[in-house]
Task: structure prediction
Amino acid sequence: MEQRTSVDVAAPPDRVWEVLVDVERWPEWTDSVTSARRLDAGPLAVGSRVEVAQPRVPPGTYTVTMLEPGRAFTWEQRQPGSAVSAQHECAPLPDGGTRVELRVVMGGAVGGVVGRMYRRLTERYLAMEAAGLKARAEGRR
Result:
């Protein structure tokens, strides 16, 4: 089960990246996250863990599995029978702005079923995250 969205942001990639990797501040700019708490010190890196709570979704711990500074990161939450992977990518646009791609993949024996159950909610949360990130990076939120 895969869902994705994209948004063009009128801010340079370094600004968008700065907002994106400051995960503990996500609740300030997206209502799709009620809390995000880093479980390790230092900058976000492969292996970093973040406890994330969202409305209508059980809280979980995400572990960063891929990070290309200034460009992309992926974090995953694994439980018996399911895995959720969330990818966040920033790409420069010719006008100096940034295209952000957000993607959620739910897999595993239980993950596909859960993904179908949460399909509309996940779609709404991706849209909220994209709009909030755009507003924050552009200085409107």
